[in-house]
């Protein structure tokens, strides 16, 4: 059947403009792309790229074309059907993977997932969605750590440069804070710009309740590790519960800096988190630090999650990226938060 449809489509594009209008040709192309997907039962990736390009040109040439708007709405519905199939097959999906798969922006995928969540057929999570039957409200750690990789790499380097030899720092559990760890040994060796050469041998003390943080730093000389123990929460690879809280309070630790992670940060709601288990430790760490520094990629800026960690007044610095929304960054700066965009 493809052998029949293909030549028909090609012949349509060889007809002069006097025979078929440009918009009609583009509409034929877009419809053919979807037809290819239906006939081959393959993923929508190639069909979507083809159709999206056609619709972009079509809408640019005639924004009021009702047929174009109707077709675009039809494709959105079909894309959501494909997303639903992926959720049902895999149990979970991530925004970044879906955006790459369908060649659309992450914001488009978020709207799709929000609509599916509103209909009750998927369960929205930070960074993606789960099948409704899944018992966890958070995507697995392995999924989240790969999300926004390039942004988190920039944030990690900028955060490591804020550490000075001889300091005691708290590093929150999570995926974003992990990206600063590979840069810490180099920072210590260079002295990080300190005029005192003996600071290069001072090392640092890292306090954490993140299993992933300990695993990454355990072999590095010059870094003293203090692990806050407790019950391991598998989705976040953090220790929590009464044991963790009691050990934190019992030692009454103080920090020069606390490098924090969370689901969302906004001028309106402050620092918020999707998981409730880590909130008591996060709160205590911020209260015990001279300076609290939030590490957050652009997808977390302006986000408000269910659990409140701290009001925005308790945050001194935010390290994020240039992709973060300008209006929210301006609001945070008006709240006296120092914002570093990398």
What does this structure look like?
The protein is of the alpha/beta class. Helix content is 46%, strand content 18%. The protein has a 7-stranded parallel β-sheet with strand order 6-5-4-9-12-14-15, with helices on both faces. α1 packs antiparallel against α2. The radius of gyration is 25 Å and the shape is globular. The termini are far apart. The N terminus is likely disordered.
Short description:
With 342 residues, this protein is α/β, with parallel strands linked by helices. It has helices spanning 2-14, 22-40, 45-61, 66-90, 95-102, 106-118, 141-146, 149-160, 184-190, 211-217, 241-251, 279-287, 326-334; strands at residues 92-94, 123-125, 128-130, 168-171, 204-208, 223-227, 231-233, 238-240, 255-260, 264-266, 270-273, 289-295, 307-310, 317-320, 338-341.
Which CATH architecture of the largest domain is right? 3-Layer(aba) Sandwich
The helix count comes to: 13
Overall structural class, as computed from helix and strand content, comes to alpha/beta
What string, H for helix and E for strand, traces the elements in order?
A: HHHHEHHEEHHEHEHEEEHEEEHEEEHE
Strand content: 15-25%
What is the alpha-carbon Rg in Å?
25 Å
Q: Look at the structure and give the CATH class of the largest domain.
A: Alpha Beta
Number of domains: 2
Spatial ordering of strands, largest sheet: 6-5-4-9-12-14-15
- The average pLDDT value, as a whole number, equals 77
Shape summary? globular
Mind summarizing the main beta sheet?
A: 7 strands, parallel
